[in-house]
Amino acid sequence: RLEDGGPVFFRQRRLGQHGRRFTLYKFRSMRVDAAKYGVSPTTSADARVTRIGRIIRKLSLDELPQLINVVRGEMRLVGPRPEMPFICSRYTPHQRQRLLVPPGVTGLWQISPHRNAPIHDHVEYDLAYANSRGPILDVAVMIATVLSALKSGF
Hints:
Layout: E1 9-15, E2 21-27, H1 51-58, H2 66-71, E3 76-78, H3 85-88, H4 93-96, E4 104-106, H5 123-132, H6 135-153
Parallel strand pairs: 3-4
Antiparallel strand pairs: 1-2
């Protein structure tokens, strides 16, 4: 908002468990004129990302408003990332299996070496989580997420 006067929050339709649509909330990190349903930036040098956006993305602070989605029961803290409907419409039956569990703010993919690749290209992380999920794995993923965010911030 400080840079271009646009809204603080970014809202986007996503698919959750069993393909249910919901509105995902994030802090806006890209310019107002960036395509709402375009490909996500893979580098901090992307011209669509604002100066403040670079900082909040690097520290994963842009994800904090998703706690609203957690409180509303649309997401959990750990699980597969919720995906955009137009991407899910192209899923294979194998890829659609990631929609069998509730989506999460963080997950195995976010702490993987493939974090900068599109999430739909690495569905194996989501399927591994779906097959192994439980409180111990969730705590481990949350700790790894915090450590990763702290490490990338320094």
